[in-house]
Amino acid sequence: MAEGIARTYASGVRCALWPDVDCDAALAFAAANAGPAPVALLMIFAAATTDPLQLAAAIGRHFPGARHIACSTAGEIGPEGYAEDSIVIVSLPQAGFHVSTLTIENLSGIEFADIARRVGRFRQEHDNTPPEGFAGAEGFALSFIDGLSRREELFVSAIHEALEGMPLLGGSTGDDLEFQRTWCIADGRILSDCGVLALVSTKHRFTAFRHDNFEPTDVRLVVTDCDQETRTVRELNAAPAAREYAECIGVAATKLDSMSFASHPVVVKVGGEYYCRSIGHANEDNSLTFFCAVETGVVLTVSRSLHLVESARSAFRAVTEETGADFVLGFDCALRRLDAENRQLKRELSDVYREHGVIGFNTYGEQFGAMHLNQTFTGLAIGPRV
After folding, report:
1. Where are the alpha helices (DSSP H) in 35-139?
2. pLDDT digits (tens, 9 = 90+) for 167-226
3. Is the dihedral of CA 65, 66, 72, 78 positive or negative?
């Protein structure tokens, strides 16, 4: 018989993990461990095999009227670290958090200005209607976006502009690396081709941060021919892209696979800092399809790996010392999990997440500020009251 795991953190945030995709059992377990405090926001991270219709119905039965965001994943992170084929439920209590949510549909057809305008109005409404005790409270924004939409850059840059400096982080929904369909549930509605934004004001100390485990080498790859719409690079350094990349990392082009890309991402320099730009797959015509936007003329740099576990432990130790947090909401790239498996470090990395209270999911892309990233961990550490 399946058994769930429940945790309560110092901020009043609660988490429940159910070890299979039985939606009714998972939400019943979460409700039984939710305590009496009203819920400001319910976040649910569900394995891609979860039936979204059953999940939406179970949320309505066990948390009637609760504001909620659910999404499909490429793996879950629960109280004991990495999980799979599971459902993770996180609840923020009204006593410490004021939450508003906005769903933007039809991402494939919407324009930057439309998103920015809607988010700007949404921010004003959120700020102008604080509950008692939340006037002047600090805030942050969480984004959840269809990981197959190819519209993450548009969505996150428009939001960032409209939020005028409010910390923003989030993740792209997944489907266990099948790349067929991902989904979100926003207040009972099951959607794809969408983005969901949550604005959160809080009385608690928090910090948003990002972390990766790569450093640039001296090897440069210039995008000399690409299709921006499909994120496909046909040529690097005026040579077939897959062959040029494979030569740079020391493998045959015919041997390129997800593990190759997870172990050897390329990075791009923006504003003096390097950001990962991961490759999704190689194609029969020797082109490469990326998980993020690419354009002709961009200079990519091949990176080398730092120690995956130790770099993560150092990052979490720093934010814990800064905030006193025992809970971290985490958006962890699916390729980081693959890289950990490839290096036989998955259990060690999972233990680091468990030790630092990381709860979240494996993503098809991560958002931080105005940037859509790959092979990165973006997180929100929440500590005691200010």
Report:
1. 52-62, 112-128
2. 999 999 999 999 999 999 998 999 999 999 999 999 999 999 999 999 999 999 999 999
3. negative
Topology (CATH) of 5-91: 60s Ribosomal Protein L30; Chain: A; (3.30.1330)
According to the model, what pLDDT value does residue 38 have? 95
Cα separation, 307 vs 176, in Å, equals 25
Q: CB atoms < 10 A from the CB of 259, how many?
A: 15
Read off the pTM. Answer: 0.94
Its sign, for the CA torsion 232, 238, 243, 246, is negative
- The pLDDT tens digits of the residues spanning 2-45 come to 799 999 999 999 999 999 999 999 999 999 999 888 999 999 99
Distances (CA, A) of 326 to 15, 39, 90, 321, 347: 12, 20, 14, 10, 20
The answer for residues whose C-beta is within 8 angstroms of residue 93's C-beta and 6 or more apart is 12, 13, 14, 35, 37, 38, 39, 40
Burial of 53 (0-12, 13-18, 19+ CB in 10 A): exposed
Q: What 3-state class would DSSP assign to 356? A: coil
- 172 Cβ contact list (under 8 Å, min separation 6): 145, 146, 147, 152, 182, 363, 364, 365, 366, 367, 372
Alpha helices (H) along the chain: 23-32, 52-62, 112-128, 152-163, 241-249, 258-263, 308-323, 334-342, 346-355
Structural contact between residues 83 and 14, judged by C-beta atoms closer than 8 angstroms: no
- To 5 degrees, how large is the angle CA 132–CA 135–CA 141? 110
Segment (H or E) for 48: none
Among positive and negative, which fits the CA dihedral 11, 186, 207, 330? positive
Residues in a beta bridge with 201: 98, 139
Domain-wise residue ranges, the chain: 5-91, 99-211+309-385, 214-305
What single letter denotes the amino acid at residue 174?
G
State the Cα–Cα distance between residues 98 and 137, nearest whole angstrom: 9
